[in-house]
């Protein structure tokens, strides 16, 4: 089995980026046709693009990281894992399905490697935007301009990601376009001088990671595969994702059904103190 140290290998990051890029091409091919939608048991939508992306990623991971457990959204909807190893992979084959169905470009493919209880590597692809954000914790994060289906080496440019120093007088918060909840709205209304930017999918983490926003609060439940890749990218870029109480998120919680009750993503940890004013 691959050792934990191997997850920091740039070659593996490139291989996983190329794999996610291939899944992005399949999603875009389906987007170009009529998209049939059905509802899962939790009333959330799913499309052929979700399944095509998942199939490509699962096959690729079986080759790249044999023996490493993979937890993917659509497969888990059919059969939830009963236990997890200390190292596992979280996959959301199409995050922002509602944006995808609505014809907006704010949907992503998310892949993260979790070691212990924290993600150490994350890849977030926005197929319609030809963008990939990726990060290896302790090694840094970057944004690539990469056409869906292209290998990592074909990236037209790579930009290092660094979170922004927060401006006390003008904090920028990214919020969900399709999933705003009362608790998050109340948290935001209690803060002065916030500019709100509505964005779909894990792109919210990416905007904070690249310094285009300062905070991303979500005080409603979500799933670990929605968050882990963005957490890794943001943490690698200098930010942090915590519970509302300021503690690190814990991943692999089978007892909660891999559900995250709430979180706040910070561009810089000192943003937390500023946001209370």
Summary?
It contains eight helices and 16 strands.
Order of strands, main sheet, comes to 3-4-5-6-7-8-9
What's the count of strands?
Answer: 16
The largest sheet, given as strand count, sense and whether it forms a barrel, is: 7 strands, mixed
The Rg value, from CA coordinates, equals 17 Å
Number of helices: 8
Spans of 5+ residues with little confidence (pLDDT < 50)?
none
Quick one: CATH superfamily of the largest domain?
A: Fructose-1,6-Bisphosphatase, subunit A, domain 1
Give the rounded overall mean pLDDT. 91
Question: N-to-C SSE series?
Answer: HEEHEHEHEEEEEEHEHEEHEEEH
Q: Compute the number of structural domains.
A: 2
* Percent strand: 25-35%
**Highest CATH level, the class of the largest domain:** Alpha Beta
Just name the CATH architecture of the largest domain: 2-Layer Sandwich
Write down the CATH topology of the largest domain: Fructose-1,6-Bisphosphatase, Chain A, domain 1
Q: What is the overall silhouette?
A: globular
The rounded distance between the terminal residues' Cα atoms is: 49 Å
Would you give an account of this structure?
The protein has helices at 10-31, 48-64, 73-78, 97-102, 182-189, 203-209, 224-236, 271-275; strands spanning 37-39, 45-47, 69-72, 87-95, 108-115, 118-126, 131-136, 140-145, 157-160, 171-176, 194-199, 215-218, 222-223, 240-242, 259-260, 263-266. By secondary structure, the protein is of the alpha+beta class. It has two domains: 4-160, Fructose-1,6-Bisphosphatase, Chain A, domain 1 (2-Layer Sandwich), CATH 3.30.540.10; 171-275, D-Maltodextrin-Binding Protein, domain 2, CATH 3.40.190.80. The strands form five sheets. A seven-stranded mixed sheet has the order 3-4-5-6-7-8-9, with helices on both faces. The radius of gyration is 17 Å and the shape is globular. The chain starts with 9 loop residues before the first helix and ends with a helix.
């Amino acid at each position: 089995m691959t050792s934990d140290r191997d997850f920091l290998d740039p070659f593996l990051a490139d291989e996983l980026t190329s794999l996610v890029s291939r899944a992005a091409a399949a999603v875009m091919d389906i987007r170009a046709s009529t998209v049939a939608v059905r509802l899962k048991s939790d009333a959330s939508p799913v499309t052929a693009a979700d399944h095509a992306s998942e199939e490509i990623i699962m096959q690729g991971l079986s080759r790249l990281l044999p023996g490493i457990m993979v937890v993917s959204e659509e497969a888990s909807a059919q059969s939830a894992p009963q236990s997890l190893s200390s190292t596992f992979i979280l996959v959301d084959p199409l995050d922002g399905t509602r944006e995808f169905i609505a014809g907006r470009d704010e949907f992503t493919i998310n892949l993260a490697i979790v070691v212990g209880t924290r993600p150490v590597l994350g890849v977030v692809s926005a197929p319609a935007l030809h963008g990939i954000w990726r990060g290896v914790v302790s090694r840094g994060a970057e944004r690539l301009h990469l056409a869906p289906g292209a290998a990592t080496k074909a990236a037209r440019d790579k930009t290092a990601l660094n979170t922004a120093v927060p401006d006390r007088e003008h904090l920028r918060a990214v919020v969900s376009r399709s999933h705003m909840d009362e608790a998050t709205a109340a948290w935001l209304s209690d803060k002065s001088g916030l500019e709100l930017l509505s964005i779909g999918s894990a792109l919210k983490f990416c905007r904070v990671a690249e310094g285009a926003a300062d905070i991303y609060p979500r005080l409603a439940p979500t799933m670990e595969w929605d968050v882990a890749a963005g957490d890794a990218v943001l943490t690698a870029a200098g930010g942090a994702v915590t519970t509302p109480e300021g503690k690190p998120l814990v991943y692999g919680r089978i007892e909660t059904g891999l559900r995250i009750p709430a979180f706040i993503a910070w561009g810089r940890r000192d943003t937390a103190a500023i946001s209370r004013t």
